[in-house]
Amino acid sequence: MLNFVTADMSSSVRMPLLNTGTPESKRQEILNYFSQTFDLYDSLFDVLDTDEAWYEKAISLRHPLIFYYGHTATFFVNKLMAARLIDSRIDPDIEAMMAIGVDEMSWDDLDDSHYDWPSVDALKAYRQKVRSMVSEFIMTMPLEIPVQWDSAGWLILMGIEHERIHLETSSVLIRQLPLSWLNNNGRWPVCPEVGIAPENTLVALPGGKLKLGKPYDDPLYGWDNEYGLQEADVAPFKASEYLVSNDEYLTFLNAGGYDTERWWTDEGWAWATFVKARHPEFWVRKEDRWCYRTLLEEIEMPWSWPVDVNCHEAQAFCRWKSEVTAKSIQLPSEAEWYCLREQLDTDLPYWEQAPGNINLEYWSSACPVDRFRTGDFCDVIGNVWQWTSTPIDAYEGFRIHPYYDDFSTPTFDSKHNLIKGGCWISTGNYGIKQSRYAFRRHFFQHAGFRYVESTASGRDTINPYETDALVSQYLEFHFGQEYFGVSNYPEACAALCSGLMANSPMTRALDLGCSVGRSSFELARWFQHVDGIDFSARFISAAVELQKNGKIRYFTPTEGELGDFQVASLKATGLDDIDVNRILFTQGDACNLKPKYCDYDLVFAGNLIDRLGDPLLFLESIHERIRPGGLLVLTSPYTWLEEYTDKANWLGGIRENGEALDTYSALKRVLNQHFDEVQPAVDIPFVIRETARKYQHTVAQCTVWRCR
Predict the structure, then answer these.
(1) pLDDT per residue as tens digits for the range 408-465
(2) Which helix (H) or strand (E) segment is 685 a member of?
(3) Do residues 548 and 640 make contact, with C-beta atoms less than 8 angstroms apart?
(4) Of the candidates 614, 463, 472, 493, which has an alpha carbon nearest to the alpha carbon of residue 539?
(5) CB 41 within 8 A of CB 166
(6) Distance between CA atoms of 602 and 630, rounded to whole angstroms?
(7) Cα 676 off chain centre by
(8) Are 386 and 332 spatial neighbours (Cβ–Cβ below 8 Å)?
(9) Domain total for the chain?
(10) Cβ(303)–Cβ(376) under 8 Å?
(11) The domain that contains 238 carries what CATH number?
(12) Where is the Sulfatase-modifying factor enzyme-like domain positioned along the sequence (predicted)?
């Protein structure tokens, strides 16, 4: 194993188990882990030899390294303050300036921000103050075994693992700096093994049923996206025996890989042409030969080492490989990678020595792709990360961690693909089986890939979070929790409709003003066909997303710009057993419906009439849509507003010939022409959440009419 500065900095210090030992022994174990991590991080930054290395950006879309040196220390202070576990800051200016990093939003989204960064000496002094404070906190904090994610110990582990993440991401930035700015101090040695690249072959795997995710009582620290459960049924497939080597990738490059648009996705080709990519990031052209950039050196091209590429380049290689082999070659899905990983029955921190080039146990670089074998495959873990075709998404049961509410959810956008397996510098949580990290597809990490021959499809789309404020509000209204003891309104209305039908036919129902669809889904329990119609395309889009995928994610504000990410789920609301194909969601105008919308046993117009431009026109014609004996169910709080309905068109809440006219009276006057009232009007309350401390508590009146 490597030994950086002192013996206690060795990578032999493992991430602590959460469920062993006593509080006293666990405090000491966490302190050792914290100290080793702090020293290791400092050791990486010791290679920066000039002011330019500290203050100039390695790439335009990331902060300079001075930021990352301070950022991981401020994380401890900021999180402890947010959790109210400490009551004073160390340096408010540094803790504000270095609080938030950069997610590389787009390859053409230039960041021209300027900062008045502190000096290196000032940050070194600051880090030492943080180290002293955190060390003292660890030894005095309340702690119970097992360490659970709402405890102070979990927050400290979060800070430690956060620094280990930036150990790796900072090493990528250092690898992109000019060598003249760096000091190769011998503490980060390059693998001396090179050799000839092996010929890659495809090896069959049986696939099978997998359960992805881990329970909340797992003994290893995890980020929130690791928890929950996702079942996957993986068809048999073949995977490449080795990671793609520099030599194998050279064949793609020589075939015109960077000049042939058809081998790239649209997004990938746009990136490649914008940045004028001609070869992998860490390949260096020297007249008639290729060289290779490691962390601190430029060496002759090690053709047997894995190629470092971003996801776009890996995808383009696979498309080229498919064309030349006439096989379905692609990147593995997350589930397919787990089929590979199942062949390795150990995990950090349980192994005596790493079964791959990982955890800094061998070198500070990649190594030959045939160096570490597990069964039929090499580099199941380690060497370089392995790109997958899977955009990161939450597992069922996902919960946002309250101490770090924006760690995972911003990446649930279909634009961040998972990388699996770790690399030579992956330590801590980065190195465990269940870790889930995702980067934008143009992002460079110490990442390469292996390919699979697979028939799997549908890999590239997931549900992004719905951030439209009104749509999110109604998703919460329809599918969120109940407040103040008031029952779910769409569910209650649908149940009332069902009860009214008695022994009547339940063939066709029309849900007018269906919003995001809960009442339509509920009506589909009983009706053979349900048309859900709303004027808002945004509402209909959300309903269709739920119908298609069974869930949709959305954001609910708590106060100001803060909020929580939620999941509207058919399964969680007991609607997963209905036939969703019974429902047809369509955008439409209740006052101008197409003729085909007719012959209904039930028309439900929930909270609709006081949002129509011409409610009288609607009421005078709705009987044409209902079969004789069918029902019209209206609910409304009668909140007449001129932004929806000209005052001249209000049904009620007005004076007519000097006398007060309420909406219920107007309804009876209009509907008595074609309907009989079935029962007295009843009130149905509902609550709409606006923020954590503001709610609309409203009472709608429900009237029921039978068509003559």
Answers:
(1) 887 887 889 999 999 999 999 999 999 999 999 999 999 999 999 998 764 444 445 5
(2) strand 675-691
(3) no
(4) 472
(5) yes
(6) 6
(7) 52
(8) yes
(9) 3
(10) no
(11) 3.90.1580.10
(12) 200-452
Q: What DSSP designation does 6 have?
A: S
Does residue 280 have a cis bond before it (omega within 30 degrees)?
no
Tokens 């996705």 belong to 265
C-alpha span between 86 and 154 (Å, rounded): 15
**DSSP notation for 96-158:** HHTS-------TT--------PPPHHHHHHHHHHHHHHHHHHHHHS---SS--TTSHHHHHHH
Both 419 and 497 in a single domain?
A: no
pLDDT, average across residues 684-694: 96
Does some domain include residue 44? Answer: yes
Angle, helices 65-82/152-175, rounded to nearest 10 degrees: 170
Same domain for 229 and 114, yes or no, is no
484 CB-side CA count, 13 A: 13
Q: Which of 142-151, 556-565, 680-689 has the lowest mean pLDDT?
A: 556-565
Q: How many residues does the chain have?
A: 708
For 697, the domain range is 467-707
Residue 296 in any domain: the answer is no
**Bridge partners of 371?**
none
CA distance 106 to 429: 27
| Burial call 591-606: b when 16+ CB within 10 Å, e when fewer | bebeeebeebbbbbbb
**Same domain flag for 219 and 150:** no
Q: Is 584 left (phi over 0), alpha (psi -120 to 50) or beta?
A: beta
The two most distant CA atoms of the chain are separated, in Å, by 98
If you ran DSSP here, which 8-state letter would residue 480 be given? S
Report residue 427 as tokens: 């330590």
Cα–Cα distance, 438 to 667 (Å, whole number): 56
- The CATH number of whichever domain residue 72 belongs to comes to 1.20.120
Question: What pLDDT does residue 110 have?
Answer: 53
**Given 457, 480, 508, which residue is the final one in a domain?**
457
Q: What is the mean pLDDT of residues 608-622?
A: 94
CATH of the domain at 589: 3.40.50.150
The Cα 305–Cα 312 span in angstroms is 20
State pLDDT tens for residues 653-676.
999 888 999 999 999 999 999 999
Same domain, 223 and 318: yes
Residue 260 is assigned to a structural domain of this protein? no
If asked whether residues 111 and 147 sit together in one domain, one would say yes
Instruction: Give the CA distances from residue 607 to residues 303, 633, 661, in Å, rounded to whole numbers and listed in that order.
Output: 68, 10, 19
Per 3-state DSSP, what percentage of the chain is helix, strand, and coil (rounded to 5)? 30, 20, 45
Q: What is the pLDDT of residues 271-307, one digit of tens each?
A: 999 999 999 999 999 989 999 999 999 999 999 999 9
Residue closest to 456 by CA, chosen among 222, 233, 276: 233
Cα–Cα dist 387/390, whole Å: 9
With 80 as the cut, is the pLDDT of residue 12 above it?
no
Q: How far from 345 is each of 218, 221, 386, 428, 544, CA to CA, in Å?
A: 16, 19, 19, 18, 42
- Residues in CB range of 620: below 8 A, 6 or more apart: 670, 673
Co-location of 448 and 474 in the same domain: no
